[in-house]
Structure formats: C-alpha cells, structure tokens
Write a structure and sequence with these properties.
The protein is mainly beta. It has helices at 3-13, 145-148, 197-202, 208-212, 280-285, 350-353, 589-592, and strands at residues 43-45, 61-70, 79-83, 93-102, 110-115, 118-124, 133-140, 153-159, 171-180, 223-227, 237-239, 246-250, 256-267, 299-304, 307-312, 341-345, 359-366, 372-382, 390-395, 400-410, 413-432, 435-454, 459-476, 481-490, 493-501, 507-524, 528-544, 547-563, 566-575, 578-585. The strands form 5 sheets. Strands 19, 20, 21, 22, 23, 24, 25, 26, 27, 28, 29 and 30 form a 12-stranded antiparallel sheet that branches. This is Peptide N-acetyl-beta-D-glucosaminyl asparaginase amidase A N-terminal domain-containing protein.
Length: 593
C-alpha cells in the first residue's frame, strides 16, 4: 500500500484527544521501530554524488591510515595515528576513503578527520539497524597536498558515541588514502609544478591552467595553516552562543601571493535545525518546553583582526536521524556523508597580512545557540622565486548588511519572517615575481525564511531560500584580465509537518513532506559548470518521545552535473527502506536536445 493511502487509514482510526502533542521534535531514534521486513544481511547506505573522475584508475599506491571501533567514546579525546606518505610513489591526486559499518540501535553521530590539525573531512554516520548497515565515502583531498607530502604527522579522528543497554550500536570505521598519478590537460605532475606563479607569468591570458587555479583541488596551496582548537576535544571550536567567537593568531610567509580560507561547519543540539527555530517570544508566550528558539537566522562570520572578511550561511545538511529518519533509508540526505566546506578569497587582505606581524583570524556564528562546531584552514600560495612580495589593500569597507524580522502570532498560531542581505567588495594588489596583479572580490548574499504555525501549532510550514553570488577577478597592472571566476549558489528548503495525538498513551503521529536542494553555476574564462541536486521526501511515523514506533516513507533524488569532465545524471527512488529505482546517464542535456 502506498504510504499516503495507509496514512489516510491510520488518521481515520485515531481518537480525538484534547492534549497537544510535543512541539514538533525533529531528531529521532529507530531503536523501538517495529521492523517491517528483515534483510538478514547488512544493507548499504549511500549518498548520491558524482564518482571522482579518476575512480576507474588504479592507484599508484594505497596507505591504510586507521581502523577503529567507536564504542562508548563520549568525552574521550580523538583517536590518533601516525601519518607519513608512502615512499617511492609518484602521485598528483589523493583520495580519502572511509568505509563504515554498524548494527544495533544508535543515533547518528558527527565525525571529523584532521591531519596535523587541518580538517580534511567532516562527516556523519547513518543510524544503524539490527541487521546491520555499511557505507563508503570517497573524497578528493588533493587540495591538502602540501600537508599530505609531509612525514611524521598526526592523523586524528573524532566521533563521540554513547553505548549502553538501549543504544548498542558501535561504529567500525576504516580510513585509507589512495594516491593517483593523474596527468590532465597536459600539465606536469604536482611534484614538478609547485606554484601557479609560473602559470601567471608564462600564460597570462585565458589559459585553461590559469582558470583552474581558482579550484583548490586543481592547484593546491603551498602551505596550509590550521585555524583550529587544541585537539583535546577535537580540533573544532565549539560555539555555544554568538559571543563565543574565537580568534587564532597567524603569521604568514612574506612571499605569499594568494590566500583562501576554507571553513568547516556543522550544527547540533538546540541549533541542529536552526532554520526552523521560532523566535524566543513565541516559545515564552506559549510556555513551550523546547529550547530550540532564537529565530531562524544564522551566519558564520570570518574576521581578520577587527575586519569582517567573509561570511557563510551553511547548506542545511540533515543528519539521518533528522526530520523523519525513514526518509534516509538507505539514501542519506545531501551532504550527510561529506559535509561541504566553504572557501573565502582573502588575497585582497595580503596588504594587511604581509607586515611580518601576528594577525588574528576569527570565527563566530551570528545568533547562535548551543551548539556549532567550526574550524578553518588557511590556504597560502608562495612565490618560490622571491623571499618577499609587496601587497596593498586598495578597497575595504565594512560589508553592508541588513536583517528584517517580522512576527505575528496569537497563542500557538502565527507567522515569522526573516529577510537578510549582505554585500561586500574587496580589492587589493600583489606584486610578485610574476608581475603586479590586482584581485577584485565581491560577495552577495540573500536570505529569506518563513515559518508558519497553524491549527493550534500542530501544523508547521517552513520555507527558506538562500542565494549566494561570489566573484573573483584578477587583472594585470595593464588591465589585462588574467583570471575570472563566478559562483552562484542557491539552496531552497521546504518542510511541512503535521502532528496529531496517537492511538496510544504518550504517542503521536507525525506527517512530513520535505524538499531540499542545492543549485550551483560556476563560470570562468574558458568553461562553465552546473550542479543540480534535489531531494523530495514524504512519509509518516508514530512516535513516543523521540523513538519511532512505526511508519512509512518515500524519497526521490535527482542529481545532475555538467562541467569540463562531461555530464553525470542519476535518479534514485526509495520506499520503506529500499531502493526501488536507480538510473544513471552520462548524456548531456545539450546533446540530447
């Protein structure tokens, strides 16, 4: 029977009750779920994404890093291992491969991997079943090559898990690095091509290599400085509130000619679903027991000393216990296995950084409540033909920012709207051995969020739109355009939830629909690329406290990407824990029209 038809039958059988159900909880465990069918064998969970371009190649070498069973690891420091790259191995690409397995009852858990204090992967686990699950994550980590080529480093993995009589699932994780010798577009091996400085000097106009230099994996930095914590509780900073901004001192080499800061972020606890949090006034007026409030605007802000240099509204990654955990069997939500990081161009600020003094990089979360996990990597490109370069900031002004809030409610029914805009433009020049180049950086952000409660607060509708446009342009001192890159990213989100009293004491029925997607358009001098990744899910579940007793769900995901590597399209449908349809195509839309 289709979930919606079964839902109608269940709804008609529910008794009328005066008591209101809990206030839209959003994170659940399946440990009391009445099993519909047992598979008897472990099931693979997947995140739909494009295979890496060199997945079909044989690695030059393979390096097992760490195998560990994460049992009751709450409040323990990260698990560590020694790292040195394999000897006598020629490589230009590196892939981190995570394989995981679990069985029993357990919540999803956040995890991260750091090498020498620099984060190289933020991930989360799926919620296991009694029969067992397994999954694989492959991430291109070539952009961390400057660290990967060093020896005698410490690899650290943080995953806090709780194991007891109820939550029995342990997570068995294996980490391996695969090294590939990939030669593309006629470029030389990374070992023989240390810096883009030669590219800028020898191919100043519309070179494929030059445009690709804006992609971190295509032209890795020469040095990476971690902006991270001490590591006793993981190398991420824990942000409990807006005032918890952290600052770390850095002193960069004087021959740095480009800088990009890469931000890793995830949200948890009372802010795991920050985009659906109502205002504090609504919670206080209705005397609701929830602490998930403070409105639905959050923004990660990056500062250099006292200057705001960038910001990020993160994509709303939903962990596998979130909203309705039946949605994510066995296809997890967008980004759940490989949470995105966010790059912010800081080259215009080299005029401030190249004075030989210590400067402070700050990370904070506007309007945050407990809790956020944030850290960053500062990627630096060095001029190997000069001990010192000259740089100067041409234009800096505090980013323009506006935030409007409107709330109207009567008792538990009401509507809350937030609209925010941010705009910034930074300009600076750097005079290196390749010449004098001026970098123009602009950032535009638009944020809209609407939350509506109706039917005495038992029905909730969330709509959110985020649009980000980032532009980076590099010109010579004669006005010749050297590099140009524009990224437009949109991620709309829509969630509707109806909550009804259940047929048994202290139970309730939740009916949910979800639409979540990310759209990206990238263009530069020689090529364009596009990504469209969307998920649609609907279903119901009977719940007691935060435990799912029974339910049904269907999900559909459409993934499509087109770039210089070609096209990749995949459509996946699932129902009640099983994939019902899975098709893949390498045909480009332009070719099929």
């Amino acid at each position: 029977m289709h979930p919606s038809l079964l839902l109608l039958s269940l709804t008609l059988l529910l008794p009328l009750a005066a008591a209101s159900p809990p206030d839209h909880p959003s994170h659940f465990s399946k440990h009391r779920l009445h099993l519909r069918n047992t598979t008897a064998t472990p099931q693979e969970y997947i995140e739909v994404t494009r295979p890496l371009p060199f997945d079909s190649l044989t690695p030059s070498c393979t390096l097992p890093l760490l195998s560990h069973t994460f049992a009751n690891t709450i409040n323990l420091p990260p698990i560590t291992a020694n790292y040195s790259p394999p000897s006598n191995c020629t490589w230009s690409r590196a892939v981190l491969h995570l394989s995981g397995a679990s069985n029993g009852s357990q919540y999803d858990r956040i995890a991260a991997v750091w090498l020498a204090g620099a984060e190289i992967l933020r991930t989360s686990t799926p919620e296991p079943t009694d029969d067992g699950i397994f999954w694989n994550v492959r991430k291109d980590i070539t952009k961390y090559s400057s660290i990967l080529r060093q020896s005698n480093l410490t690899l650290a993995v943080m995953l806090e898990n709780v194991v007891n009589d109820v939550y029995t699932g342990v997570y068995r994780l294996n980490f391996t690095v695969l090294y590939y010798d990939v030669v593309s577009n006629g470029t030389t091996n990374r070992r023989n091509q240390k810096s883009t400085i030669r590219k800028l000097k020898n191919n100043p106009v519309r070179s494929q290599n030059s445009t690709n230099s804006l992609e971190l994996n295509e032209n890795p930095a020469d040095l990476i400085i971690p902006i991270s914590a001490s590591g006793d509780e993981g190398f991420w900073f824990r942000i409990e509130r807006e005032t918890d901004a952290v600052f770390q001192g850095v002193q960069i080499p004087l021959n740095t000619y480009r800088a990009v800061i890469e931000v890793y972020v995830s949200f948890h606890g009372n802010d795991e679903f920050w985009y659906s949090n109502p205002p504090d006034a609504y919670i206080e007026m209705n005397k609701l027991p929830t602490k998930r409030g403070h409105g639905s605007y959050r923004e990660v802000v990056v500062k250099l000393d006292d200057n705001t240099v960038g910001s990020v509204i993160p994509f709303p990654v939903i962990f596998t216990g979130g909203i309705n955990p039946l949605f994510w069997e066995p296809v997890v939500s967008i980004g759940a296995f490989d949470l995105p990081s966010y790059g912010i161009e800081m080259t215009p600020f080299l005029g401030m950084l190249l004075d030989g003094k210590t400067h402070y990089v700050g990370l904070g979360v506007a309007d945050a409540i407990s809790f956020w996990l944030v850290d960053a990597n500062l990627h630096l490109w060095l001029d190997d033909k000069a001990d010192k370069v000259q740089a100067q900031a041409v234009k800096y002004s505090s980013p323009s920012f506006s935030l409007e809030r409107e709330l109207k409610f009567q008792l538990r029914d009401g509507k809350f709207e937030i609209e925010g805009k941010r705009k910034s433009e930074f300009i600076g020049w750097v005079n290196s051995s390749a010449g004098n180049f001026t970098t123009y950086v602009s950032h535009k952000l638009k944020f809209e969020n609407t939350i509506k409660f109706s039917n005495n607060g038992t029905e909730k509708e969330l709509k959110q739109k985020v649009k980000v446009t980032d532009k980076v342009r590099v010109e010579s001192n004669t006005g010749v355009l050297i590099l140009s890159n524009e990224l437009e990213r949109k991620y709309p989100l829509k969630i509707t939830t109806s909550t009804l009293p259940g047929s048994e004491k202290d139970t309730y029925l939740m009916i949910t629909k979800l639409e979540n997607s990310i759209e990206e358009e990238t263009s530069n001098l020689n090529f364009t690329s596009s990504l469209e990744n969307s998920q649609k899910s609907e279903g119901w579940m009977f719940v007691k406290d935060h435990d799912v007793l029974s339910g049904a769900a269907t999900s559909y995901q459409s993934y499509g990407v087109e770039d210089s590597f070609g096209c990749y399209n995949r459509r996946v449908s699932s129902a009640n824990g099983y994939i019902t349809n899975d098709t893949t195509s390498f045909l480009c839309a332009s070719a099929s029209s």
